[in-house]
Amino acid sequence: xxxxxxxxxxxxxxxxxxxxxxxxxxxxxxxxxxxxxxxxxxxxxxxxxxxxxxxxxxxxxxxxxxxxxxxxxxxxxxxxxxxxxxxxxxxxxxxxxxxxxxxxxxxxxxxxxxxxxxxxxxxxxxxxxxxxxxxxxxxxxxxxxxxxxxxxxxxxxxxxxxxxxxxxxxxxxxxxxxxxxxxxxxxxxxxxxxxxxxxxxxxxxxxxxxxxxxxxxxxxxxxxxxxxxxxxxxxxxxxxxxxxxxxxxxxxxxxxxxxxxxxxxxxxxxxxxxxxxxxxxxxxxxxxxxxxxxxxxxxxxxxxxxxxxxxxxxxxxxxxxxxxxxxxxxxxxxxxxxx
Length: 339
What we know:
By secondary structure, the protein is an alpha+beta fold. It folds into two domains: 35-178, Immunoglobulin-like (Sandwich); 187-301, Sandwich (Immunoglobulin-like). It is 22% helix and 46% strand. The strands form five sheets. Strands 2, 4, 5, 7, 9 and 12 form a six-stranded mixed β-sheet that branches. It has a four-stranded antiparallel β-sheet with strand order 1-3-8-6. The chain has a four-stranded antiparallel β-sheet with strand order 16-15-18-19. α1 (2-25) crosses α5 (306-336).
């Protein structure tokens, strides 16, 4: 047992040293100006939920903070909210036209300069136009450092590299609720084949023509021209903002679907409702080339998708590593006379 204790002590010491190195190498402070924005008065949600009527103006304020260790300047502006491709509320860029809450917001100040750990309160108004639809609207207030976005070059191979442009943003949501009859509605508009390099996907057209935000749970079932089920996927549906639409990607599992004709059934449960829609779609050589390059349909039929291949490689490597560790520990304990 003494040898085994020695082995465990050595492992513990090694882990402690590794943790110490990580802690020593970690930055002790944020050595730059880092901005955040939040409601000036605490809210239950952490963001603004304002009730108004068409033609009315609501007053409120945000607090901009510099949580970094250097002084700096930042720009403050408003944007519209929308739905992200995989659902969930996201916010449009400053360059995109503002047509909803982003256009209704007027800030009392659009530039701030703050010392380290300082804060400033900025008032704003939400002027709701007459004639806008009842229900829930979404926008946001953004704070962004005034200095240009940093760019980092990453060396990928000896002869190639890529650049990553980093934009530092902090956003607080501004939800505006307008009175009127609640319209809860979700629509499925179609299915089409797509994907990113090496990963085949099916895009489900989803829209929220209602006037309230919707969440739910969905599933996609695919059968081939012979009626055989070839794909079955469940997917979560986060917030779909009212009057928005998305193309939701569902990535195929296991073998990729070859060229051919298919029928997909989309079933979504949301707010006590159950929606089922069926759509025919095809997968063509052009679709396959988009995803897999020059690979032919026959090659795709006879080989697992890149997801599965990569998984098998990683599992094999993990098993080999564990075996090597186990063998090394066994030899150590044998030499110590513990086994």
